Amino acid sequence: MENGQANIILELRDVTKRYDGAEVLAGISLRVGEGEFVTLLGSSGCGKTTMLRIIAGLTEPDGGSVLLEGRDVVGDPPEKRGVNTVFQSYALFPHMTVFQNVAYALCIRGVGRREIEQRVGEALSLVQMGESGRKTPDQLSGGQRQRVAIARALINRPKVLLLDEPLGALDLQLRRQMQYELKKLQKQLGTTFIYVTHDQEEAINMSDRIVLLHRGRIEQQGTPNDIYDHPRTSYAAQFVGSANILRGTAERVEGDTVILRTGGGTMRCRTDGLPLAPGDALALAVRGENIAISREPDGDAGVRGVVEGNTFAGGMLRIPVRLDDGTEAVITRQGIHFDFAAGETVYLSWQPDAAVLVDRREAEP
Amino acid sequence: MKPRQRRERWWLCVAPLYLFTLLFVLGPVLYMIAVSFAQNTAGTGFRWAFTLENFAKMRDGVYLNCFRESLRLALSTTLLNVLIGYPFGYFMGRLGARGKRLMLFLVMVPFWTSSLIRLYGWLIILQAKGLLNNVLLALGLIREPLKILYTYPAVLTGMVYGLLPFMILAVYTSVEKMDWTLVEAARDLGATPARAFLTITLRLTLPGLMSGVILTFVPSMGLFFIADLLGGNKIVLVGSLIQDQMTRGGNQPFAAALALVLAVMTTLLLALYRRATHMSELEGML
Asked: Is the pLDDT of residue B28 over 70?
């Protein structure tokens, strides 16, 4: 949690939530600095949406506190919190025009007509929807509805804007464009964004900080680079950047490299200064793009496996290799050219620096 | 096959439906309109003619009063149905899946028996030595049996009872379709629960309420056997009058004229109502 000197605008302290006996949030503590773009990343059911709803006041936590600018708001109804939400389904009011949707919050507060017109106009042009005030939501495309939902949530100038998978319903191209625009908007306004997604790409592109959630706990948090390069757990390594997790036993340590023995050979991995002893059971994470493949072992480093085939997806060739100990490692390559045939025996190796030990430390409190 | 030919054949398939409708719905209505201008003769018959005397006859105070009573009863029935049926349908729509099934079942149960038989049930409950009076007496709330049966409240009770399921189901259907995220969004934007209800929930369930009003108002203008049974012969509605003229009175042209006026009046009121609710919808929230 390197928030530096920024003021803490939102803090969660040991927040817990159960639904029908199932633990959804198991004691979440989190601090968010003013103006920060924080992404809650995780697969479905990890508790990320529940966390957002608890901050918004749409769900009450079972325990713990939620502090907005230092004040505990648990128990306060959503209308008294000063945070606003962009809902996954946009939740635009179908019986109102775009203008009325965006003006809703101001009407509720009894703002004068002239100010309403001015501020709604500003908000709509901020999201490039200035011309569409008279349209109704069903006349808009998905991307346009998204923009209106953002304008509507920003009109009250919230301290914190909560976004629940806002780009989930858009096609890939539009999603990429909106990622860029949202990030720009956030910078421009300086509003704190808490963004929920299950898409690691979105999280990496937009966030100042990623909070990776797994089974109601914070698995790891840090900058996108930090999590990508230094995943602490096998889950984090697999979820962010889809790394391979390989297991072995420590044989010896050479400087800051550990040599591991496994069924099909030996593997090398950087130690990051962790205290290790020969015989330790270890897991390492290594990304498919960093794995070299050859027909002959490279000295004493290399694990043996059998090529199982290859598939081309998203501009990348994915080559699954079944290792001697039964693990499947997936190697990735740019382009579509690959010299090895299915069924061929190969040796995999990598630079020690490209592999990182995981599951050796407790997740950050 | 050319698309055009196909379309022609498609028409052949639905033609019987239109024919049936024309013959058995439009036909009787046209016949009724024709008869309303005919001349009554002694006995049960009539003579084809073009006379307005059947309509002129309605200016009599007795008949005008029937219309007034019918309208008053229909309006109060509808109003009570709105006041009871909307909250009922609303909370029903917010129940869990099991609760919904159970409530739906309970609302539908009355449809399994004849409404006439169910009215006799009310007769037993409301009569001087009936269930209601016995309970009230036993509780010491009253000293003498109340005279409820054959009064206006008894008729109103019967009417509301008979038509309430339609209102409940109409409201329930629209509440069921509600996207409750919209209410959450309203709260998120600063609306109190009451404000969110008025600006979002009520607005979006208005179509259900409107069809509920139509479903209860239209039949309540014509229903006569409830008033006959629970009101004795004290409250004479247009419906009873038409029935009476058709049968005992033996004046078919007058009955037809009464029916025509009732139908036109109901249609006009509905048009007025549609217009009024539509106008308020156009105004929006601003």
From this structure: yes
